[in-house]
């Protein structure tokens, strides 16, 4: 029986919308849930409720706000099985991905609790002997727009740090994952007795996204915007936020490289390549989208990589927890991946493994002979496709890795840590991981991209800094001379 999530959550209450939309399981098109379809009116209500709740929430002792974060983490642990099931059913994710998400989520709320024990400002030296302070204060209402690919974790990463800093939140999850990315948190926060208006969740269909999105950005009560999603949509959100002079943090797509040097541990490198390219069907913003392998180890690496990739079990994740490769989220994504594979083959690439598409399931696919004129080289794929490109020198690997408008994350495999640092420092990415895949996320670390992969950072104190205002406050103590003419 399909779930019924026909109310949105605002001001601590579950409220009706005039219509609903259908949320399907991407693996088999069965109806997973019927969901509240909010429009701009409901969004305005949620923003007003968030604004009304700001006074109480921001004035609570920080220790009380931190305690709520810990209660949320404990409630998530209690509801873990529901979450994992819905990550599988709504998002087409592997069981192991759901388990990871459920655990990492809790870590985010614990890190948010810890972050609120940090300093909230600095003392400054003053030329006139003032007591001079730079102090942080919450902005007010912060709007959160999150994607479908790691829906619970990415929603939580966006709203937990602003929330614990004293802001109130209106969260709009993706229409592909309205429960895991949104209403799940409404249920959790309701259960732990979070004060009314601190977290509000509006869900809507694709048809209403533009109107709801505009309200979330343009409503004068909204003071900050956190967006995670595609570069195309992120650009328009950032432009609108700029027009309204609102603070925003925008995390977008990527074309991440994993560089395998000739001195790398090849077994580890092949495992990192397999995980980085195919985890969640390649639908992670930090997925490996260019695998650069030194020509001297190309053949042995390919052998190990193909062995590992061909052992990945493919199928509906809900039918068997061992199905690591499930469906892509929707037909649009499948068509994008199909177009990229066909374009590459037409222009001379070789399919070394996979390449078949059945419904929304795309086999883990390895390509060689990939050249800069191919779509798979230029564009984000967001599917289980790994182009493997040989290189001769570190300089060449760096040039190929940086040959993209994106700059999210990267990885370098080498036994020489000094060499790893030199390469990592030359890569134009917001994040780089030596002897690991580009896919890394820790709740206390600054997460974010460079170039067209976004602006701003989530995580730890950086997540707090984005959504607080720094104010300069002084106390005069007799040292400031005013011209006697006055
Ligand atoms: P998307 O841009 O289509 O949607 C993201 C969110 O924006 C969704 O909630 C969607 O409903 C909303 N949205 C769409 N149109 C809007 C509009 N006009 N106004 C306001 N909101 C609107 O992206 P997606 O398909 O959900 O996610 C996949 C993309 O996200 C990929 O490009 C991926 O690389 C990127 N991503 C980036 C990160 C990161 O941290 N950098 C993390 C995950 C995903």
Topology (elements, then pairings):
Layout: E1 3-5, E2 7-10, E3 13-16, E4 20-24, E5 31-36, H1 40-59, H2 62-78, H3 80-91, H4 95-115, E6 121-124, E7 131-138, E8 141-145, H5 151-164, E9 168-172, H6 179-191, E10 199-201, H7 206-218, E11 222-228, H8 231-243, E12 247-251, E13 256-260, H9 266-278, E14 288-294, H10 298-310, H11 331-346, E15 350-353, E16 357-358, E17 361-362, E18 365-368, H12 375-378, E19 385-391, H13 394-402, E20 406-407, E21 410-413, H14 417-426, E22 433-434, E23 450-451, E24 454-455, H15 460-466, E25 468-475
Parallel strand pairs: 1-5, 8-9, 8-11, 9-10, 11-12, 13-14, 13-21, 14-19, 18-19, 21-22
Antiparallel strand pairs: 2-3, 4-5, 6-7, 7-25, 12-24, 15-18, 16-17, 20-23
Helix pairs in contact: 1-7, 2-4, 3-4, 4-5, 5-6, 5-15, 9-10
Bound molecules: nicotinamide-adenine-dinucleotide.
Summary?
This protein is an alpha/beta fold. The chain has helices at residues 40-59, 62-78, 80-91, 95-115, 151-164, 179-191, 206-218, 231-243, 266-278, 298-310, 331-346, 375-378, 394-402, 417-426, 460-466, and strands at residues 3-5, 7-10, 13-16, 20-24, 31-36, 121-124, 131-138, 141-145, 168-172, 199-201, 222-228, 247-251, 256-260, 288-294, 350-353, 357-358, 361-362, 365-368, 385-391, 406-407, 410-413, 433-434, 450-451, 454-455, 468-475.
